[in-house]
Amino acid sequence: PRRLAYRWVYPRAVEPRPGNSMLVEFTLAEEGGKTRLTVVESGLDLMPWPDDEKQGYADSHGKGWARHLERLSAYAPAAPSRPVA
């Protein structure tokens, strides 16, 4: 598998870490001649936000990830294939 990860929503001029940012991880793995993309956004439980704000964030990002992944799944079959070194 190949993996890319980054931190999201940390305050400006602050080093991102658990408790002030979310960790977003993308993993690509071959499955039966196809590629499976897994996206995980974690760390919401560590954020110092009230429960209603956390729920709003989860709802918003859940819808956002669904929309972007749907667009990616429509684009990917038509994208040119390139070997990865």
Task: Write structural notes for this entry.
The protein is an alpha+beta fold and 85 residues long. The chain has one domain (2-78). Helix content is 29%, strand content 31%. The protein is built from one helix and three strands. The protein has one helix at residues 51-75, and strands at 2-8, 22-31, 34-42. It has a three-stranded antiparallel β-sheet, with no helix packed on it. β2 (22-31) and β3 (34-42) form a beta hairpin. The longest helix is centred in the last third of the chain and has 25 residues, at 51-75. The radius of gyration is 16 Å and the shape is elongated. The model has no long low-confidence stretch (mean pLDDT 92).
Give me a quick take on this structure.
The protein has 85 residues and is an alpha+beta fold. The chain contains 1 helix and 3 strands; from the N terminus they run βββα.
- Termini separation: 13 Å
Low-confidence stretches: none
Helix content: 25-40%
Largest sheet: 3 strands, antiparallel
- Number of domains as seen in the coordinates: 1
Strand fraction: 25-35%
Number of helices: 1
Mean pLDDT: 92
Shape: elongated
Strand order of the largest sheet: 1-2-3
Instruction: Kindly provide the radius of gyration, computed on alpha-carbon positions and rounded to a whole number of angstroms.
Output: 16 Å
Find the count of extended strands (DSSP E, 2+ residues). 3
SSE string, helices as H and strands as E: EEEH
Q: Structural class, please?
A: alpha+beta
InterPro entries: ASHA1/2-like_C, START-like_dom_sf
Protein name: SRPBCC domain-containing protein
Organism: Candidatus Nephthysia bennettiae
Family: Belongs to the AHA1 family.
